[in-house]
Amino acid sequence: MEQLDHMESNLKRAKHGDLKVSIHRMEIERIRYVLSSYLRCRLAKIEKFFPHILEKEKSRAEGEPSILSPEEFAFAKEYMANTETYLKNMALKHMPPNLQKVDLLRLVPKPNLDAFVFLRVQERQENILVEPETDEQREYVIDLEEGSQHLIRYKTIAPLVASGAVQLI
Fold first, then answer.
1. If you ran DSSP here, which 8-state letter would residue 92 be given?
2. Given a cut of 80, is residue 104 above it in pLDDT?
3. What are 29-53's pLDDT values in tens digits?
4. What's the Rg (C-alpha) of the chain?
5. How many CB atoms lie under 10 A from the CB of residue 45?
6. Which GO BP terms, alphabetically (predicted)?
């Protein structure tokens, strides 16, 4: 977003009426659209899995990088507080006292870590253990070459995503 602001300030200094300026403006708008689409998807995932995301944030080790930006973390906390308040005001206060507690962590669906994801390898990785789809197949080990792209189950490469060795596409 900072880069977009910088690009726009550069365009303001350029000559008006130049064909390059209008092409650059179209490119900036395209980038802005892709960025806002990405951010909408990210917020939708936070809304869908908020208890699990906040639980993961609580349990992360000291010094371990967060998977959320500070703004996303604040959004997730506020979304959880608003959800709990809404449930209490609309339904739970009308229930018997023994049913007035709700465990959102248990009720909200968990992210599917068995889903397959596309990835691009940033750093060469050796001896990655790939689990089979069925019990009949045996496990096998693969090497990931830098720059290669793969379709692999997320839970297999989750630590590599966290370390930055692979990047989701």
1. G
2. yes
3. 999 999 999 999 999 999 999 999 9
4. 22
5. 13
6. DNA-templated DNA replication; double-strand break repair via break-induced replication
